[in-house]
Amino acid sequence: MRYVDEFRDRAKADFLVKEIERLLARIGRDENRPLQIMEVCGGHTHSIFRYGVEGMLPKSIELVHGPGCPVCVLPMGRVDDCVAIAEHSEVIFTTFGDAMRVPGSRKSLLQAKADGCDVRMVYSPMDALALARKNPAREVVFFGIGFETTMPSTALTVLQAEREGIKNFSIFCNHITIVPTIKAILDSPDLRLDGFLGPGHVSMVIGDAPYEFIARYYKKPMVIAGFEPLDILQSIWMLLKQIDEGRCEIENQYARVAPAGGNSVALQAVAQVYELREFFEWRGLGSIDHSGVKVRDAYAGFDAERKFAVPNAKIADPKSCQCGEVLKGVIKPWQCKVFGRACSPETPLGALMVSSEGACAAYYQYGGIKRGRDEAEASVA
Amino acid sequence: MNMVSFPPRRSRGKVHVPTVTLAHGGGGKAMKDLIDDVFVEAFDNPLLASLDDSARIDLLDLAQHGDRLAFTTDSFVVDPLVFPGGDIGRLAVCGTVNDLAVGGALPLYLSCAVIVEEGVSIDFLRQIARSMAATAQEAGVKIVTGDTKVVNKGACDQMFITTTGVGVVAAGVELGAHRARLGDAVLVNGLLGDHGAAILGARGDMALQSPIESDCAPLQGLIASLLNAAPNARFLRDPTRGGVATVLNEIAEAAQVAIEIDEAVTPLRDEVRGFCEILGLDPLYLANEGKIVAIVPPDEAEQALEAMRAHRLGRQAAVIGSVVAGEPGRVTMRTIFGGRRIVDMLVGEQLPRIC
């Protein structure tokens, strides 16, 4: 398959792995003091496990699976709000597929559907708008979730609904923004990371400028990375090259998709429809200032939060969860006390077990066939 | 053949209205007319035509095929009812025929129980019955007994079908998941995931147009030639819901062995790969309706592969992996990229990913 197979070329992968080994030896890292690199985005985590990338890397490098899985970091209280909206008899509640299974404190959307709510899976917010057109007597709500990657599509859908004068469509906005979260991780006292693989699809929208502070003030290098396995290996190699040459910059490996300045049309739509919230609650990380957006007053008619009185209750993460420590690379998923026992993909306690992109779920499902050390540990699952 | 004596041929009823109504489930003349005109007409065989409460099958007839009776049942609620490459009728026959065949049985007789929602058109019902009849003929089985129920609008989604099948297992054929041994080869008879992708595409929820057709087909012929070529085959299963990944996990668990497959040689059509790439699905978990996974001892793998490839439904058969030393119950895949990953059971249904 063109434009896919090229990025999974095994010979090129072998070459890159050799280069990575060579650079690690020069940098002077080994198994006992591995270099820690965080891949910010859940899409990276998924690819790393899907293609077994981790197992191909030398033991002197450790990948820390970051917070960039929007489904994982959604707090239980927000899922409860979704269910509360879906329980209105006039509502058709529409959502992306993998948000259906996220547990709330009462139930998931999948359970709400089984209990009689009209919950439908869509592939795009425009499909939800089409449902609103077709069902003028119903209220169609779209579950707006995701980072800057999906924000423009919901913003443009709201603008389209406004142009058409559609009154029975709204979005339940749970969009979050990645930069304040990276900052929160960088500010944590137990941080051990040596560098970042930057989120490719977020960068396609926001460009590379918003990350400058990471290199300038925190002195950590970042490479914006694509999602194919060769993209990931090449990005790791670029990061090591920076470290080896004593540079600390924001570089872009994913230039074929993510332009330096981002996408100005998308950014304009986002700015028109959304504004920053004071703070937003993250599952596993707690409340982070300015890390979420809400619908502006000018578009209040398309804001499900205002149309339906949502309970907006704060539900604390279970105490036993160590998601925060996993996210910061302090512990590995299987070192968490409840991993594979109280917390599994069937009954997820913590954020990272929820979606297949979450670090714990990925470990549970695809396993850490990595190093001898990991293999013994992970098999506990 | 040892024939049962049949009552004299009676006159067949005719339906004169365009749609199914609750009257067709009432047990009276309307129901008899519907059964006659739609099902007896399509399935056309003397055992059914007598319309007795049960089909009676001569034991001596059965015994000439082997020494054990195989008996299975399956319900079909597919949405949409008609999809590229098949319909609920074809699926209902293939599903049960294949469940018998993978157990090593020669499929012989089926029952057909249909639950119809009022308002379904008679012509559509007839189309499905004819599709069942054609598939039954292709599979060499007879539909010899049945039942029809009509339910209120909304009580079912147009039509549900349950088929039950009996077949006979030849003496000496012993298949079981627990029989897999170190070194055994893992084979499939062709391209994986077509049915699952065809159904997802046909539902239209994904706003994706795809040319993918379901692989829905009766496999008794292919399996007969496979068992002929590889008489010591350990185990066969049709990887329907849950796909190949689920079947391999069941085998690894039952036999307490490890299985490793190789992504590079796993047969997938480009359209299915593309479909999965876009939606973030894994083709190993997509349903198949015309495929088998076969576990065969290493010295019979070559013959098994040749036998499958010689059959119309096995042209793209491949050895995709083997039973290996490793953690019992574990299925792994050597990825196309050179890494290894675990192929686990799915927790629920596969759901498309956000981004």
Provide a compact summary of the structure.
By secondary structure, chain A is α/β, with parallel strands linked by helices. Chain A contains 16 helices and 13 strands. Chain A has helices spanning 10-27, 42-50, 53-56, 76-86, 109-114, 125-134, 151-164, 178-187, 200-206, 212-216, 229-244, 264-273, 304-307, 323-327, 359-366, 372-378, and strands at 35-41, 61-68, 91-95, 118-121, 139-146, 169-175, 195-199, 222-225, 250-252, 274-276, 279-282, 286-289, 293-295.
Task: Provide an overview of this structure.
The complex is a heterodimer of chains A (381) and B (355). Chain A has two domains: 1-67 and 178-248 and 320-381, 3-Layer(aba) Sandwich (Rossmann fold); 76-176 and 292-307, HypD, alpha/beta domain 2 (Rossmann fold, 3-Layer(aba) Sandwich). In chain A, strands 2-1-7-8-9 form a five-stranded parallel sheet. Chain A has 381 residues and is of the alpha/beta class. Chain A has helices at 10-27, 42-50, 53-56, 76-86, 109-114, 125-134, 151-164, 178-187, 200-206, 212-216, 229-244, 264-273, 304-307, 323-327, 359-366, 372-378; strands at residues 35-41, 61-68, 91-95, 118-121, 139-146, 169-175, 195-199, 222-225, 250-252, 274-276, 279-282, 286-289, 293-295. Chain B is α+β, with helices and mostly antiparallel strands. Chain B is built from ten helices and 13 strands. Chain B has a seven-stranded mixed sheet. In chain B, 51% of the residues are buried. The model of chain B has no long low-confidence stretch (mean pLDDT 93). Chains A and B meet through helix 1, helix 2, helix 3 and helix 15 of A and helix 9 and strand 13 of B.
Q: What labels would you give this structure?
A:
heterodimer; A: 381 residues; alpha/beta; Rossmann fold; 2 domains; 5-stranded parallel beta sheet; 4-stranded parallel beta sheet; globular; disordered C terminus; B: 355 residues; alpha+beta; 60s Ribosomal Protein L30, Chain: A; Phosphoribosyl-aminoimidazole Synthetase, Chain A, domain 2; 7-stranded mixed beta sheet; 4-stranded mixed beta sheet; 10 helices; 13 strands; 22% strand
